Structures are given as C-alpha cells and as structure tokens.
From TrEMBL:
Record EC number: 1.8.1.4
Family: Belongs to the class-I pyridine nucleotide-disulfide oxidoreductase family.
Native source species: Sphingomonas caseinilyticus
Protein name: Dihydrolipoyl dehydrogenase
Note from the entry: The active site is a redox-active disulfide bond.
UniProt keyword Ribosomal protein present: no
Pyridine nucleotide-disulphide oxidoreductase dimerisation domain ranges (all copies): 345-453
Keywords tagged on the record: Disulfide bond, FAD, Flavoprotein, NAD, Oxidoreductase, Redox-active center
Entry keyword annotation includes Transferase: no
Length: 463
C-alpha cells in the first residue's frame, strides 16, 4: 500500500473545509488543509457572512439613532456617521475570527498548506511548488459571485458583495441588481446609512425560494423602509463614465426600455461553484450542467478517495449546510456514520426584521398533500410590542392528517435565532401540538412560534 503525506487533505478553508479538517483531526486522522488566501475562513469569514453582519448591526444602531427609534425610547441623540470607524470594527471582527481558525488548526494539529491546490492525479495535488499526497481529498472550494454577462465589476462604481462591504463613502444612489438575500442585506446597510436604494429583480417577487406570503410581506416591509423595487425587470446594460453608472432596464416580459442613473451598482444575482483551476480533468471528474460536483449520500464523488462538500455540490449555498457536511464527511472517512438531513436546513436573511424559514414553503407543502397552517402576527407578541418591533409574523405548516410540522417561516427582529427551535423540533419529527404544548418563557419573541403552532388547530390565545 502506498504511503501518503496525509490521511486527509481538505481543499479550501471556508466553513465546510475548516470544520472538516478539524473534525478529521479530532478523529485521529493526519490532516492538512490547502488554502491560498492569506487568512483562513473562506468567503464567509473574510468577505461574506461575518463582515456583512458587522455592517448590518452597526447600520441598524445608526438608523435607530438617526430616524427616531431611540427617541421613542426616551433617548435623544444626534448621531454622526464615522464610516471609517464602522469599517474598522468590521475588519476587527474578521481578524479575530479568521485568527481563531488558525488557532484551532494549531490546537488540533491541522497543517495549513499555503496556496491553491490543483489535482495532478488520483490522491495527488500540487500546491505552489509542493506536491502533496493524501489517501482522502475533500473538495471544499466554495463559490464565487455569478457575473452578469456584459457587465464589468470594477469594485469602484460596479461592485460585487465584496466591494459593497468596502465602499469608502455612502453612495447617493445605489442600484442593487438581484432581490435575493445578499442584495437585500447589503442594500439595506447602505439605505440605513443614507443612500437612495433601488432594487431591480428579474422575477415578479423578491427572495426566490422563500414562502410566498413571506416574500410579499418582506417586500412590503422593505418598501416601507425606503427601498424602491423594480420587479419583473431585466437589466440589459450598465455603462460607467466619470464615477457614475447608467443602467438600461426593460420589463422581463418585453416592453420599452428605460435608464436609471446611479453612482454605485451592486451585482448580486447569485453565486457559482468554484471548480475552475482544480484540475478535475486530471482525475476524470466532470461537473454537472450547473457547474457542481455530484456526490452520493456520504459525499463521495465517483473518483475513489475524492469527496466534496458545501457550495461545490448541489443544495443551498449556505455556510451552516457546509459545516454540517464537513463534520459528516470527516466522520464517514473515519469509518463512522456522518449524516446531514438536507430537508431541515434553515435559511435566514439578516435584514431588520430578519426573515427565516426551514422546511417546505406552503406552496411546496400543498403540492405534496393536504396541510393545516397556523399564523401569528408579531404585532400581538408582548416582547415585540415593548421593543417597538411590530412587523412580521410566524407561520407553521403542518400535515393535515399527521399534524407533523413540514415547514416554519417567520419575519421578526430575531427570526434567525427563533428558527433554530423550529429546526430542532422538525429534526425530532414534532407535530404542531408538540410545539404548542411546550412551555415558552414569557415575554419572548419565541412565544409567537408557540402561538402559531396553537393556531394550526385554531386555538391561539392572543389573537
């Protein structure tokens, strides 16, 4: 049997990759992780989830101080925006967390092989000038921004999500191309800091993939917050000149075109798997028509000893999905049973209020059979009322016969935290009655989930 440098080599140190590497090392496997960035953590920690949350949080405070929310609470202030300091705290958060991964690698004896890995043959990759062999190789290279054909991203006037985090001044008018999670989050940051924001979405509603009622309500709330929407609209061109941009747009179903002037354009139409440069041809591995690597239930590719997880394989491109797959793949390599329940993966939009869901939408559930739905408005929740957070609702979708919960959707200031309870309940096969008869602390936002579950059988108390 051949001698290998490592039992496991992980390509990529994002949430899937670094978690897979740490778990493999914990299970006694000699592990390395190839990463070409100067810091660990991938898109999520460096230019994605983490820095965007730092800007969302800070901009929410600024907005509350500037636009009357603090005054309602009896706090009179006149805020002044220090954008450099706001960017500074974002960078500090990133530095602390990426450094934390490096510490965890050292603690768990994971070797960081610095550079980008390319397959040169089965069990062999080249990283810079170094050739590394491993008995098992996990592809965890994540995803990158989907380009808009004919539109050049210069990171000054036309930016992607990375550039939108780094803007040196608040734009006068930002146009966001794409009404998905990233566009809404980053658009809302700059709206709160003073920009006029217009969101252009090809589909007839924002947040594709979310529950229909949630999509409509989210649209209404965002409009109220000052974001202008052009739905069912296609961008046919973006021309830049002298630090300004002119967009040409037309109705998606055909019609007269018009132009929109902006000083910042954010392209956020989705993400694509990072497989270029991996040398997959050298091991006879093809991607599917969406550019993804297909795997079996255990995350094996069709090439023996090569595994794949996260954004490069089918499924939602979410950091927490990748993390769970990272643990599972390491356990499978170690001879244990690693499982991810892909039917219970929560999705969250970190706007204010947050929007979250897990399981089936009402539309999907109805396609499968008869359902019962319970809803409860946040307006009737005592904690939301005292916090002046009336927007949103919780919705529980249950099977009409078995009462088993099929999906939970909510819009609330802390929806991202609330959804964990729903996910856990569904993981245990809970019925709406199980949630309804579980005692919830008072006063909390989570009581809205209990009331929505009670509403499935027509028994909510507070409406």
């Amino acid at each position: 049997m051949a001698d290998f440098d490592f039992d496991v080599l992980v390509i990529g140190s994002g949430p899937g990759g670094y978690v897979a590497a740490i778990r493999a090392a914990q299970l006694g496997l000699k592990t390395a992780c190839a990463e070409g960035r100067e810091t660990l953590g991938g898109t999520c920690l460096n230019v994605g989830c983490i820095p965007s949350k730092a800007m969302l949080h800070a901009s929410e405070y600024f907005d509350a101080a500037a636009n009357g929310a603090f005054a309602k609470l009896g706090i009179k202030v006149k805020p002044e925006l220090d954008l450099d300091a706001m960017h500074g705290q974002r960078k500090d958060a990133v530095k602390g967390l990426t450094g934390g991964i490096e510490f965890l690698f050292k603690k768990n004896k994971v070797e960081w092989v610095k550079g980008y890995a390319t397959f040169t043959g089965p069990n062999t990759v080249k990283v810079g000038d170094r050739t590394v062999t491993a008995k098992n190789i996990i592809i965890a290279t994540g995803s990158s921004v989907t380009p808009l054909p004919g539109v050049e991203i210069d990171q000054k006037v036309v930016v992607d999500s990375t550039g939108a985090l780094e803007l040196p001044k608040v734009p006068e008018h930002m146009v966001v191309i794409g009404g998905g999670v990233i566009g809404l989050e980053l658009g809302s940051v700059w709206r709160r800091l003073g920009a006029k924001v217009t969101c252009v979405e090809f589909l007839d509603q924002i947040l594709p993939g979310f529950d229909g009622e949630v999509r409509k309500e989210a649209n209404k709330i965002m409009k109220k917050q000052g974001i202008e929407f052009k739905l069912g609209t296609k961008v046919t061109g973006v021309a830049t000149k002298g630090g300004k941009a002119t967009l040409t747009v037309e109705p998606a179903k055909g019609g007269a075109s018009e132009t929109i002037d902006a000083d910042c354009v954010l392209v956020s139409i989705g993400r694509k798997p990072n497989t270029d440069g991996l040398g997959l041809d050298a091991i006879g591995l093809q991607v599917n028509n969406r550019g993804q690597i297909e795997t079996d239930h255990d995350f094996r590719t069709k090439v023996p000893g090569v595994w794949a997880i996260g954004d490069v394989i089918p499924g939602p491109m979410l950091a927490h999905k990748a993390e769970d797959e990272g643990i599972a793949v390491a356990e499978n390599i170690a001879g244990l049973t690693g499982i991810v329940n892909h039917d219970v993966i929560p999705s969250v939009v970190y706007t204010m209020p947050e929007i979250a869901g897990v399981g089936l939408t009402e539309e999907q559930a109805k396609e499968k059979g008869e359902v019962k739905v319970g809803k409860f408005p946040m307006l009737a929740n005592s904690r939301a009322k005292t916090n002046h957070e009336p927007d949103g609702f919780v919705k529980v979708i249950a099977d009409a016969k078995s009462d088993r919960v099929l999906g939970v959707w909510c819009i609330a200031s802390v929806a991202g935290t609330m959804i964990a309870q729903a996910a856990q309940a569904m993981e245990f096969g809970a019925t709406s009655e199980d949630i309804a008869y579980t005692c919830h602390a008072h006063p909390t936002h989570s009581e809205a989930l209990k009331e929505a579950a009670m509403a499935v059988t027509g028994k909510p108390i507070h409406i």
